[in-house]
Specification:
The complex is a heterodimer. Chain A is mostly helical. Helices cover 70% and strands 5% of the residues of chain A. Chain A is built from 20 helices and six strands. Chain A has helices at 2-17, 20-46, 49-52, 66-76, 97-109, 122-125, 140-161, 166-174, 193-227, 230-235, 240-280, 291-300, 303-330, 334-340, 342-352, 355-360, 365-370, 377-387, 392-420, 430-439, and strands at 56-60, 88-91, 116-120, 131-134, 184-185, 188-189. Chain A has a four-stranded mixed β-sheet, with helices on both faces. Chain A has a two-stranded antiparallel ribbon with strand order 5-6. By secondary structure, chain B is α/β, with parallel strands linked by helices. Chain B has two domains: 4-226, Rossmann fold (3-Layer(aba) Sandwich); 231-296, Alpha-Beta Plaits, CATH 3.30.70. Chain B has helices at 44-51, 72-75, 93-103, 108-121, 141-153, 171-186, 198-204, 222-228, 246-250, 276-285, 300-316, and strands spanning 4-14, 19-29, 33-37, 59-64, 67-68, 78-81, 159-163, 190-195, 207-212, 215-221, 233-238, 256-262, 265-270, 290-296. In chain B, the strands form three sheets. Chain B has a six-stranded mixed β-sheet with strand order 6-7-8-3-9-10, with helices on both faces. A four-stranded antiparallel β-sheet of chain B has the order 2-1-4-5, with helices on one face. In chain B, strands 12-13-11-14 form a four-stranded antiparallel β-sheet, covered by helices on one side. Classes of the chains: A mainly alpha, B alpha/beta.
Chain lengths: 440, 321
């Protein structure tokens, strides 16, 4: 009989993997996910210094070389070797500042000319204020960048005034600091702050999607066999339980293939494109604060978490796919099926709706309970593991509870399926379902 | 091995609202063509599903070739064509056939060889097109039925069960099916088919079993069944129909107990004490123009009507197949 289960599984697997829908889904989802991660990074680097600040004019009325400093700091963020462009520094006498400004305004208003102009004067040097006007003035990240460049430059000029060695100042200017954050909980170290959050959400979402998509596939497969009446021939050759097992196994294999492909392709895309993008932004830490954690989402998923996530996927898939199959066997049409799967979907969503509280506090009682219940653990536990340290014992325990839960689901579903597959006519009531379960 | 292909003993199957099969026992000899006859809802399909171990009987035992019908080896020797037919619509014909054959324990390479032979035999491989490469739903209904029939016979089963095989078949496919059944019999295979069309059964079956309301009404060798029914039947053909006093004579219950009137042709059953000669004389005296007057064995159709009766059909209608 085991051989026949494999024959069924093989058919399910090959027929689905050959289908156009599978190929499209497998390629499209990682492309989308990579896009979600890469585009903000790309935007951040594009919106950085390199492009916009290359065409600004710095009106320096300080007479202390502050303009040159700012220009150097901004230029350090660019990758272009093009030295002919770059922030243009114009030294202006304080008295002529107004005239220089109106000239700059005219230049900015000409098409394809200056992006904007920066005014530095004595109050800037005093650490009070600087003014900028330009087309990109509404970009928060660019203005932050400009502000910090001016602050840094002011500090350096004043240090120079205080007689600090020029070489020391230049070295200071080059120092780039990145803050790496790590989450600490009462249970110890776990994950790396924001990246763990993203990793958790991505894993959870992927598991949820895979369970819904492939669970529904099992349901549709069952329904197809029933409505096309091919079921009767197949069941005359193989026990319904084995047919169900083969089907779940085959479709589960498809799901696993897809998840591995998603991770593989998505990981490849991100690791391939990310250096290109960040290099583009120069060595100057142009990766903005928002892009860094998303980029690290993939890196933040350790192989251990990945392996356990796959184990949870398999458990969750078996649990839900058999229930979806039972729902499919009870009905006679796709419309009826949508109603019949509602309870199963609600069960699945009952875990997912608590995802944000779990994300906020992965060690709350709610999160712990959800990571033990067999119908929510496949989604919640991998998320928790990405966020906080979960003791191996709880993982093993929750997997064991999940296994028992899956066995119970299979037992229940097989009984409904056995009777349902050969029963045509109206949808059974709950009382009738209970009879089926007892009768089989 | 037993010389009974099927041995059903005291099988009972109850459903929620009714009893589908009551205390059914029947024996099907190996190598025979066996007709399972009965009105709609008599319990034919339920019986067949129990033979195939698709559903379990509540009581009784079923053995196939001397082994319990739960044995995988025995089930692999069965070919089943259900009444409601269907295949995986989006699947390629060859792949469907290979899959179903593999489920019966056939090796894929052997299956591929036989599939080509069968497709060729049923005209599904033509110089222009190899329909084996097409998807099932690209085939016409007739072609799909051929494919389904191939799937029933691909693993060369010892016992073939055909549930209402002629329903929905055009005359050409019906003839191909009859030829195939005959060939199976010549090769020593056992064929069971269920039908409510008596003409087909009378022409093809060696033995029959009539069931109604889940009960066996009669079974045995077809020739014996007909012999036992006796030669109390008269086949009568009249030129010009039953006019004048002829109709009255035929309705005389002292002479005729049952009359099947098809205008020019009559099949009638003599009343228990009646003499055929008396009937003939009275018809001649009444001036009937007789073209044929023959003492015959009743047709299976007559036996069926006589044994099952109109009541059996009516009450049987409400149940499952």
């Amino acid at each position: 009989m085991a051989n026949k289960i494999l024959i069924v599984a093989k058919r399910e697997y090959l027929e689905r993997v050959r289908s156009r829908a599978f190929v499209i889904m497998t390629l499209l989802v990682p492309a989308l996910m990579a896009g979600v991660i890469l585009v903000p990074t790309y935007m951040a680097t594009r919106g950085g210094v390199s492009a916009s600040f290359r065409h600004i004019r710095i009106l320096d009325a300080t007479g202390a070389g502050l303009g040159d400093r700012v220009s150097t700091v901004l230029a350090a963020d660019t990758t272009s070797k093009d030295t002919t462009s770059g922030p243009f520094v114009v030294a202006v006498a304080p008295g002529q500042l107004a005239a220089a400004e109106s000239a700059a305004v005219r230049d900015v208003m000409k098409p394809k000319s200056l992006t904007g102009y920066l005014v530095l004067d004595d109050s800037t040097l005093a650490g009070k204020r600087a003014r900028y006007a330009g087309r990109n003035a509404s970009s928060v990240t660019e203005m932050e960048k400009l502000e910090s460049a001016v602050k840094q430059s002011v500090m350096m000029v004043r240090l120079e005034h205080e007689g600090v060695n020029k070489q020391t100042i230049d070295e200071l200017a080059k120092s780039k600091l990145e803050l790496s954050s790590e989450r600490l909980t009462e249970k110890g170290r776990g994950g790396s702050g924001p990246s763990g959050l993203f990793a958790g959400v991505i894993i959870g979402l992927m598991l949820l999607m895979a369970i819904i998509v492939h669970g529904q596939n099992v349901m549709r497969g069952v329904l197809e066999e029933k409505t096309s009446r091919v079921a009767e021939v197949v069941i005359s050759s193989i026990k319904p339980e084995s047919l169900l097992a083969g089907k779940v196994l085959g479709v589960g294999g498809v799901g696993l293939t897809q998840i591995v492909a998603w991770i593989g392709i998505g990981g490849y895309l991100v690791t391939f494109f990310m250096p290109l993008l960040t290099k583009n932004a120069g060595a100057g830490g142009a990766m903005s604060a928002g892009a860094a954690p998303t980029a690290m989402a993939f890196a933040g998923i350790s192989p251990g978490v990945l392996g356990i996530s796959i184990a949870y996927f398999l458990l969750g898939f078996v649990f839900y796919a058999t229930l979806f199959a039972a729902a499919g066997s009870m009905v006679n049409s796709e419309q009826e099926a949508q109603q019949a799967v509602m309870p199963v979907m609600l069960l699945l969503m009952s875990g997912w709706i608590f995802v944000s509280p779990v994300l906020i506090n992965p060690n709350s009682t709610l999160a712990v309970v959800l990571s033990w219940l067999p119908w929510s653990s496949p989604i919640i536990m991998p998320i928790r593991m990405g966020l906080a340290a979960v003791s191996p014992l709880s993982v093993i325990g929750s997997l064991a509870v999940g296994f028992v839960g899956s066995c119970a689901a299979v037992w229940l579903a097989a009984r409904i399926y056995r009777v349902g597959m050969l029963m045509y006519g109206k949808k059974p009531s709950f009382a009738e379902l209970a009879k089926w379960i007892r009768y089989a | 091995m037993s010389d009974l292909a099927i041995d059903i003993r005291n099988v009972v199957k109850r459903y929620e609202e009714h009893v589908a099969v009551r205390d059914l026992s029947l024996q099907v000899p190996r190598g025979s063509v066996y007709g399972l006859l009965g009105p709609n809802g008599a319990g034919k399909t339920t019986t067949i599903r129990m033979i195939l171990d698709i559903i379990l009987p509540d009581e009784g035992t079923i053995t196939l070739f001397g082994q319990p019908n739960t044995s995988v080896a025995v089930l692999d020797q069965l070919g089943y064509l259900p009444e409601e037919r269907g295949l995986y619509k989006k699947m390629q014909v060859r792949r469907v056939l290979t899959f179903l054959a593999e489920l019966k324990g056939l090796k894929p390479t052997e299956a591929a060889r036989r599939i080509d032979q069968w497709l060729d035999r049923f005209g599904l491989i033509t110089p222009e097109k190899d329909w084996g490469e097409a998807k099932v739903d690209e085939l016409s209904r007739g072609m799909q039925q051929k494919v389904q029939f191939i799937s029933t016979l691909l693993h060369d089963p010892e016992l073939v069960i055909l549930d209402e095989p002629f329903s929905g078949l055009d005359p050409i496919n019906a003839q191909a099916l009859k030829d195939a059944v005959l060939e199976l019999k010549q090769r020593g295979k056992t064929v069971i088919f269920s039908t409510h069309v008596m003409d087909n059964a009378e022409r093809m079956c060696d033995s029959v079993c009539i069931i109604a309301n889940g009960r066996k009404v009669l079974d045995g060798n077809l020739a014996e069944v007909k012999r036992e029914a006796g030669t109390r039947n008269v086949a009568l053909a009249l030129n010009g129909g039953a006019h004048n006093g002829v109709g009255e004579i035929l309705r005389d219950t002292r002479l005729v107990s049952k009359l099947d009137d098809t205008n020019n042709f009559f099949e009638l059953e003599l009343a228990p004490a009646a003499d055929a000669q008396v009937l003939l004389r009275r018809l001649v005296d009444a001036g009937a123009s007789i073209e044929r007057f023959e003492l015959v064995q009743p047709s299976l159709h007559q036996i069926f009507l006589q044994r099952v009766g109109a009541s059996g059909v009516e009450t049987g209608m409400s149940g499952h197949g």
